[in-house]
Amino acid sequence: MLSFLPAPILAPLNAVLACLSVLFWGGLIILLAPIKLLPIPALRRQISALCNACMHGWVATNYGVLRLTTKTRWEVDGLSESQLSKQGWYLVLANHLSWADIVVVTVVLRNQVPMLKFFLKQQLLYVPVMGLACWALDMPFMRRYTKSQIAKNPALKGKDIETTRRSCEKFKDLPTCVINFVEGSRLTRSKHQRQRSPFRYLMKPKAGGIAFALNTLGSQFDQLLDVTIVYPDAPENIMWALLQGKLDRIHVSVRTLPMSEVPVGDYDSDKAYRVTFQHWLNGLWLEKDRTIANVINQQQAPAPFYQELEPTGQAESR
Q: Where does the Phospholipid/glycerol acyltransferase domain lie (predicted)?
């Protein structure tokens, strides 16, 4: 254990180890990616499996490094009762506080579900290196058209869903777990106040993105996983505190919901369904807010980060 090292040494050490991990595992994925261009389905499936194994190696390395260099306690509720499987299809909804969330969620779920996939904007496909790696990892790319674009060219209506659905064709035969950070942005005090969030510890959920994911892949999901991330003693910069070894606890609550509880419909065209879906999502967020409050209230002195957040508006997802 290297947790005895002072923070000025631990932070750069962890940063260097994290970069080396990305270079190693990411480099392997980049080397494998061109092989997927060959028109041999069986070979492409094998390469996809190898790329996912590389991502699993990256996640395991992250956890190993944190166990080696920090004393952070990982507390996970609800996972053992969830009866998850790597052969299943899942949609994960999570709150978002820090870049550390990606590490936390992938570490917690790494041995429970298929390797996580993130919905990415179509433009990222054309970013050098990153786009190739994400394509090799079978990340689903989505292209959204604005209402003004559709008004100018009505032929675009429905094209975004159809394009994304085609990019997800491979998931019909490949167990998949897709994650969505529903708030669309990391929680900060200024964003929380500017948004006039009605939630004590959360920003308003953005219903449009998750409705789009459900409209694209909803019929394939077995369960919905409601994942709540809490850093009870978190300072303002959670990622930096983690690298410095100053984060005492990471708490993750996992709750499974049957897909039958999720409202189904056309979010863009059906106003009544849109209201129903927003109401359902706000209810989910209210429950998540209570979960965070229960975890924080167990501490004698909650983190200033959470104490500074105050609900100011009405529950209304977008």
A: 90-232
Secondary structure class of 251 (helix, strand, coil): strand
142's tokens: 């989505």
3-state secondary structure of 253: strand
Tell me the three state secondary structure of residue 145. Answer: coil
Q: Over the stretch 218-267, which tens digit does the pLDDT of each residue have?
A: 778 999 999 999 999 878 889 999 999 999 999 999 999 999 999 988 88
CATH T-level fold of 72-307: Glycerol-3-phosphate (1)-acyltransferase (3.40.1130)
DSSP state of 77: E
Average pLDDT of 118-139? 83
Supply 52's token pair. Answer: 């996912």
Nearest to 95 by CA among 224, 184, 24, 222: 184
3-state secondary structure of 102: helix
Which pLDDT belongs to residue 158?
67
What is the rounded average pLDDT of the residues 156-168? 69
Say how many C-beta atoms besides its own lie within 10 A of residue 112's C-beta. 19
- Report how far Cα 221 is from the mean position of its chain's Cα atoms: 16
- Residue 309 CA to residue 201 CA, distance in Å, equals 6
294 CB-contact burial (10 Å; exposed 0-12 / middle 13-18 / buried 19+): middle
Please state, in angstroms and as integers, the Cα–Cα distance from residue 61 to each residue in 17, 245, 246, following that order. Answer: 9, 17, 20
Which region among 156-160, 180-184, 233-237 has the lowest average model confidence (pLDDT)? 156-160
pLDDT class for 38, splitting at 50, 70, 90? very high
Number of H helices, E strands in the chain: 11, 8
284 and 165 Cβ atoms separated by less than 8 Å: no
Are the C-beta atoms of residues 241 and 195 closer than 8 Å to each other? no
Average pLDDT for 265-270: 84
